[in-house]
Amino acid sequence: MSDGEFLKPAELYDLTGFARAAEQEAWLKAHCVLHRRDGKRVIVCRIHARAWVEGREVVASEGPNWSALNA
Description:
By secondary structure, the chain is mainly alpha-helical. It has one domain (9-59). It has helices at 9-16, 21-30, 46-54; strands at 36-38, 41-43. A two-stranded antiparallel sheet has the order 1-2. It is elongated.
């Protein structure tokens, strides 16, 4: 059974210790966990939360780095 791609509200509370979106977002920013704010919701990908717990840095991708290719 899949848990889904995004943390559920209860899981987000467990991670941050906060119920309010503004406090959750502040905690996520302070701990460098990638997230997105959508109105009153805070969206966190499960893989980003796991990476934080494991001590891995997750960098947001903006697509391929074409400048890294040699012509």
